């Protein structure tokens, strides 16, 4: 039936080719419109209470994402530097809709004159005399709540702190972030500001650069990888059509999958960015097997190209179908994840695999028919006497002679890999996704070295009673939490409304006064004074308009995900202990911020990926049993696919490569890649074995035929993955390195371990005597 269907496709080849051209043009139109997203919020559970807390925080206080613009100078307390700093701050403030844009030049200061208080600016006007500059230096360095955020004690670094104004309705913030970051970098390149070493960092920049690196790598590497694939396919098959077929199949399939992703309103995130190389892997693999089988069919087609195409494609169709189902099942196992991007990736990858299979089997015949059929004598010479054929024959001889030593060596390999796997650490530092020499990494490191952390952790106290935040009892508990923050070396520069109240209280009652006023009435008077000043925007950064919510914010420096998880747990436990009695009376308390979501993301992501790998392994094991038509042979055929994964995971442990959001995806993806060639080998071996009745001869024939397609598809993919190691984005680097290693090891094991396993195992059909009788066996 499939053969008749292929004949129909060949008779209507121009209709088929025209249809695929229309599909390619229609879906390819969406390719330049793809969006790239690097949001941490997208990587957490949909119903995560910390995500809901962040949404409430944003509704009251705006985004917790900041951008820090740092300028370096020998001395920041000079007239020229302060003038340029303020000019830069004003330019940035005018470039976007910002909730906050503060620097040394527009900070507030509080002064007491007898019983009166005056709220004004720390820098009312920029001093022009040495005395004025010295006085400003003394006033500024005395403000502990500004030190480490807006300038350092060495007075050689100053920053501008920027926070975005969120739109009234939640929208895609990526364009807003990107526009702001690009505008700031443009301003810093102007001659007036370029004379100062400048550094731009913070969550806004991190997300923008993450998306930009993904977009840049997606474009740059695609050309490099395609070039390498062309080179290797030409060297393997020495036919132009061997290049045209897989690249056409892959490109059309990619356009279809990415078009549906775009039309569904989704963006490509950190996980989805591996979709393109993944489909490239699968498309090259299946097309190589199709073309190799077409070449084999030429010698028996008596010069009839249509017959050779129908025979070749039909004979590989069953293996291709099983490949697609097993690989789609493996990738689709990610759909059980509770994290939306992971779930979407599983669906897109499974869909992509099925699309590649369908496009390959529909397009191969009509497309190859456009090329002249290779001459029979040249094909025979290439298949039987070429360099690759001689190499495959030597491999078959090696397998036959050393089957038992090979099996024993692999037991040792598994033991060594197991020790390495036990050393793997689950650890992630988002900023370390960038290499040390990148602009954002350099800026991030300098700001953390000269100032304090770039990321914040937020505590929000909410009530339903207006003016509840003015209650001295509640403020005293907020003060206790802030003192605990002050005492923890991992938390830097904690700030709240108490910093403002403390300055007001000390200006009024003397330096011995604390941060908490003695009565609610005094608190109300002090806050009213501050509200009526020109510096009131500082106040609204820490409380809302009716004083039903207050914010305690602290900065944290870069730390590993394990340390971050422990810190978040300790902060939650402490603040809940302090406010326990108030929570029983209805007070709402939340510890939130991007850092909290990131801590949640790591554990959830790793646990989800381990579950996905378990489900993937189970599904593929069942399907391999179905392909092999028996339990033992099906399970045995999995071993050569699992060993390369174990080896790579072991190398990760020995090399200190952590298990993170990227490397956790390697195992399920590698299993889906590695099992493809095994299925082709298993089906061809079963066919040859039943025909000739001899396991060794069947092994040699299978290695000689299927092995060619394995090499032709695996080597270019390995080289293509290794190209990704040139990326400055470490997730791409590690994905390319580890995937390249898995592809190469899977090739080695499919050419050596799979044949040896089948030589040592007696299949059920052989035990049942279902082989061709010796008298009718064909020769080698």
Structural class: alpha+beta
Gyration radius over CA: 33 Å
Mean pLDDT rating: 83
Based on DSSP secondary structure assignment, what is the total number of beta strands? Answer: 10
In the predicted model, the low-confidence regions spanning at least 5 consecutive residues are 775-780
Q: Main sheet?
A: 4 strands, antiparallel
Helical region count?
30
Gross morphology is elongated
* Distance between the amino and carboxyl termini: 31 Å
Percent of sequence in beta strands: 5-15%
Helix content: 55-70%
Task: List the strand order in the largest sheet.
Answer: 2-5-1-6
What's this, in brief?
The protein is of the alpha+beta class and 780 residues long. Helix content is 64%, strand content 8%. Strands 2-5-1-6 form a 4-stranded antiparallel beta sheet. The protein has a 4-stranded antiparallel beta sheet with strand order 8-9-7-10, with helices on both faces.
What does this structure look like?
With 780 residues, this protein is an alpha+beta fold. Helices cover 64% and strands 8% of the residues. The protein has 30 helices and ten strands. The strands form three sheets. A four-stranded antiparallel sheet has the order 2-5-1-6. Strand 3 and strand 4 form a beta hairpin. Helix 21 crosses helix 23 and helix 23 runs parallel beside helix 26. The two termini are 31 Å apart. The C terminus is likely disordered.
């Amino acid at each position: 039936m499939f053969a008749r269907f292929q004949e129909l496709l060949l008779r209507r080849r121009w209709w088929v080719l025209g249809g695929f051209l229309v599909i390619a043009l229609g879906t390819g139109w969406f390719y330049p419109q793809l969006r790239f997203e690097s949001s941490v919020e997208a990587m957490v559970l949909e119903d995560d209470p910390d995500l809901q807390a962040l949404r409430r925080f944003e509704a009251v206080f705006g985004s917790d994402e900041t951008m820090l613009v740092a300028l370096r100078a020998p001395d920041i307390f000079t007239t020229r530097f302060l003038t340029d700093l303020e000019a830069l701050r004003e330019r940035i403030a005018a470039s976007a809709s910002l909730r906050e844009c503060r620097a040394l030049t527009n900070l507030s200061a509080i002064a007491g004159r007898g019983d009166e208080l005056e709220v004004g600016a720390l820098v009312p006007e920029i001093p022009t005399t040495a005395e004025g500059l010295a006085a400003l230096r003394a006033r500024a360095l005395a403000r502990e709540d500004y030190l480490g955020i807006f300038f350092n004690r060495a007075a050689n670094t100053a920053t501008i702190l920027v926070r975005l104004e969120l739109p009234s309705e939640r929208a895609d913030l990526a364009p807003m972030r990107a526009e702001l970051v690009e505008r700031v970098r443009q301003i810093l390149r102007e001659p007036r500001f370029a004379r100062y070493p400048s550094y731009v960092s913070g969550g806004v920049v991190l997300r923008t650069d993450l998306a930009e690196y993904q977009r840049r790598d997606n474009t740059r590497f695609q050309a490099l990888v395609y070039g390498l694939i062309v080179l290797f396919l030409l060297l393997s098959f020495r036919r132009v059509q061997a290049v045209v077929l897989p690249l056409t199949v892959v490109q059309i399939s990619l356009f279809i999958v990415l078009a549906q992703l775009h039309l569904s309103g989704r963006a490509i995130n950190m996980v989805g960015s591996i979709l393109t190389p993944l489909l490239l892997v699968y498309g090259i693999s299946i097309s190589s097997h199709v073309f190799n089988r077409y070449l084999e069919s030429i010698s028996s087609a008596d010069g009839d190209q249509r017959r050779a195409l129908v025979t070749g494609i039909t004979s590989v169709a069953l293996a291709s179908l099983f490949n697609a189902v097993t690989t789609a099942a493996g990738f689709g196992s990610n759909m059980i994840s509770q994290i939306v991007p992971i779930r979407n990736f599983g669906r897109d990858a499974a869909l992509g695999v099925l699309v590649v299979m369908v496009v390959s089997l529909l397009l191969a015949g009509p497309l190859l028919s456009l090329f002249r059929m290779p001459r029979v004598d040249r094909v025979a010479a290439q298949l039987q006497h070429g360099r690759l054929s001689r190499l495959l024959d030597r491999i078959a001889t090696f397998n036959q002679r050393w089957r038992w030593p090979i099996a024993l060596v692999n037991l040792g390999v598994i033991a060594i890999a197991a020790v390495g796997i036990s050393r793997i650490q689950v650890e992630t530092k988002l900023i370390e996704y960038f290499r040390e020499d990148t602009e954002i990494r350099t800026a991030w490191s300098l700001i953390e070295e000269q100032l304090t952390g770039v990321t914040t952790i937020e505590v929000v106290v909410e009530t339903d009673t207006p003016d509840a935040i003015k209650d001295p009892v509640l403020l005293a508990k907020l003060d206790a939490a802030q003192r605990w923050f002050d005492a923890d070396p991992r938390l830097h520069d904690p700030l709240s409304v108490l910093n403002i109240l403390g300055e007001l209280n000390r200006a009024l009652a003397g330096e011995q006064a604390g941060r908490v006023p003695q009565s609610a009435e005094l608190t109300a008077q002090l806050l009213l004074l501050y509200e009526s000043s020109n510096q009131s925007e500082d106040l609204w950064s820490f409380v809302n308009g009716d004083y039903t919510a207050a914010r305690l914010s602290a900065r944290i420096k870069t730390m590993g995900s394990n340390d971050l998880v422990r810190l978040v747990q300790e902060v939650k436990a402490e603040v809940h202990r302090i406010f326990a009695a108030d929570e029983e009376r209805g007070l709402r308390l939340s510890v939130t911020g991007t850092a909290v979501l990131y801590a949640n993301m790591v554990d959830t992501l790793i646990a989800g990926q381990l579950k996905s790998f378990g489900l993937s392994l189970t599904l593929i094991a069942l399907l391999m049993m179905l392909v092999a038509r028996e339990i033992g042979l099906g399970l045995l055929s999995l071993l050569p696919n699992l060993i390369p994964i174990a080896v790579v995971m072991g190398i990760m442990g020995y090399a200190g490569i952590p298990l993170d959001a990227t490397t956790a995806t390697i195992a399920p993806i590698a299993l889906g890649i590695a099992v493809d060639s095994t299925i082709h080998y298993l089906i061809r071996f079963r066919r040859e074995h039943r025909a000739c009745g001899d396991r060794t001869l069947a092994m040699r024939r299978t290695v000689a035929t299927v092995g060619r397609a394995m090499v032709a598809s695996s080597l270019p993919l390995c080289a293509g993955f290794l190209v990704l190691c040139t990326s400055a984005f470490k997730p791409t680097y590690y994905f390319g390195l580890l995937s390249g290693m898995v592809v190469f090891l899977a090739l080695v094991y499919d050419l050596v371990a799979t044949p040896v396993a089948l030589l040592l195992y007696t299949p059920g059909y052989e035990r049942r005597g279902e082989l061709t009788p010796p008298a009718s066996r064909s020769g080698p």
